[in-house]
Structure formats: C-alpha cells, structure tokens
Specification:
globular, Selenide, water dikinase, ATP-binding, 60s Ribosomal Protein L30, Chain: A, PurM-like_C_sf, PurM-like_C_dom, ATP binding, 2 domains, Phosphoribosyl-aminoimidazole Synthetase, Chain A, domain 2, alpha+beta, 306 residues, 9 helices, five-stranded mixed beta sheet, 24% strand
Length: 306
C-alpha cells in the first residue's frame, strides 16, 4: 500500500507516536498508552501513568495540546473517590505541560488501568524520529534506569519511604522540559525508554549506517535498583527484553540494562558539537542524572556494543 503523503512517521519502525501533516507548518502527533498501578497512592499513580503516556509526544519533539482519559476500573472493590484521585493526578501532569483534558472513556475491568490518548503538534520538518541517528552522534539519557525493578520492590513492600519517594520523583517527572533545553541544538534522533528497557529502545534507533556503542560505566542506574536486582526483585519483562536484545549485542547484557521502565527518560542522539551544551541544559532543566552514555559508530559486526 502506498504511504499517505500526509503520514510523516514510519509505521514499520516502532516510532513513539504518529505524525500526520495538516499544513506546511503544522503536523499533529498522536499516541496512546496505559498502565496498571505501580504504587498504592491513586493520585500518584495517575501522575505516573499520565507522565508515561505524554512521554511519547515529547520523544517526537512535540508539544501536547489535549488528552483523553483511558480508564479500566473495578467499581465493585474500589470507591469512586479512588477513581477521582487517579484522574486528578493525571490531569495535574497534563496541565503542567500546557495541555488540557478533553474527555475520555472508562470501562469496568477486574484489573485497574489508566492512561491517556494524547494529541500534540510539531512542525512537519522538525519532529524527531527514532532511527535517524548519524555517525558520530553522542547519546544522552535523561533519567536513571531501575524504575521497573523498583516498582517490583514497591509491590513487594521492600523499599523504605525515602526510596519510594526517589522512584516516584523520577516516574512523575515529565520529559517535557527537555524540549526547551534542546531548542536550537542538533537533535538527530530520539526515543523514550519505557517497556523495552534501555537496550530494546536503543535497537529502535539503529539504521543501516550505524551501530551503537555504550559507555557502560556512564549509564546512570539508581543504587537501590542494583541492590534489589541482586536480591532477585526483577520484573518478568526484563528477562523477555534480555532474550530479545542479546541476539544483537556483543556480550550478554546486565539485566538492569533490560529493565522495563515506567515513565523513563529520553534517549537522545545529539551531534558531537552540541552534546556538551545539551547535557548542561538538560541538567539545568531538572534532569540532574543526565549523562552522555554512548555514541553512534559506523556499522560493525554487532548492532550494539556494551
């Protein structure tokens, strides 16, 4: 089937969201996502789920305009006040990035879930794809890894209050502020790190010209996540991710590099000349754990080197 001249994103390479051209100056960006609870607090769960859903729009370099709630709720076992708190948490994050909640849909389900369908906008010639890295680009990760492992530990009541607060801080932090931090700099590609883990999403950034070489010691990982991983508190998704990525890495990866993130950071391919400025700007924008963690190198035997 011939590709529509208005559809600017590629449907075959796992783009974070769709990009559809309306005019020479405006394209709409659309995505949807939802998750099951990762914390007990309904307001915070709403914030995390919304931040996770919104992230796909930010990963395209776009600004959200509005969002629709997607809700599965068990009203037999939970009160309407719980649902109201979830929706309030989600709305707080939508409003934070200048967008609006314009409606939504809910159904009765035995397992609770919440998320958003988000519409954003971007210039048709200025959105970020995930597989357009160029040789020599440096890769910046804006949030530390370990959120999937810590979510598992939270469910097992294995974390202290301070450790839970640290995990919540990162999961509720919007990737929105990276847009202004990177304005005017040469961003060649971007994706957000979520359910497929760092290496799974890095594989989406590959193309025929490049392999990716990671600086293993530079990858930010939450200390408590390492401790929990050593105790075996590892989500099943991490093992599935490991099975997928080990086929194209030069060595068997550490499981933390395959940890499925909830509302993880952006993985950004920036030109070498702009990378230092980008890193400084990101840290100043609140992403204090941002690090240059690798580079795009000429195509080699393996797709990803660790």
């Amino acid at each position: 089937m011939e590709k529509s001249k208005f559809l600017l994103s590629n449907t075959t390479n796992n783009e974070d969201a769709s990009v559809f051209k309306l005019t020479d100056d405006i394209a709409i960006v659309q995505t949807l996502d939802f998750i099951t609870p990762v914390v007990d607090d309904p307001f915070v769960f709403g914030q995390i789920a919304a931040a996770n859903s919104l992230s796909d729009v930010f990963a395209m370099g776009a600004k959200p305009l509005n969002a629709l709630n997607i809700v599965g709720f068990d009203s037999c076992h939970f009160s309407s006040e719980i649902l109201a708190e979830i929706l309030a948490g989600g709305k707080s994050k939508v409003v934070e990035c200048g967008a609006e909640i314009v409606g939504g849909h809910s159904i009765e389900t035995p397992e609770m879930y919440y998320g958003l369908s988000v519409t954003g906008k971007v210039h048709p010639n200025k959105f970020w794809s995930n597989n357009t890295s160029k040789i020599g680009d440096l890769l910046i990760l804006t949030k530390p890894l370990g959120m999937g492992i810590l979510s598992t530990a939270i469910k097992g009541d294995m974390l202290s209050l301070d450790e839970i607060k640290e995990a919540i801080f990162h999961m509720t932090q919007l990737n929105f502020y990276a847009l202004a931090a990177l304005k005017g700099l040469k961003v060649n590609a971007c994706t957000d790190v979520t359910g497929f883990g760092l290496l799974g999403h890095a594989s989406e950034m590959l193309n025929d010209e490049i392999s990716i070489s990671f600086y293993k010691d530079k990858i930010p990982i939450l200390n408590e996540a390492v401790k929990c991983a050593n105790l075996g508190l590892i989500p099943g998704g991490a093992y599935r991710n490991l099975e997928f990525v080990k086929k194209f890495t030069n060595t068997k990866p550490d499981i933390v590099l395959c940890d499925p993130q909830t509302s993880g950071g952006l993985l950004i391919a920036v030109s070498q000349k702009d990378a230092k400025t980008a890193l400084t700007n990101l840290k100043n924008a609140g992403y204090e754990n941002s690090q240059i963690i690798g580079e795009a190198v000429p195509k080699k035997e393996f797709d990803i080197y660790i």
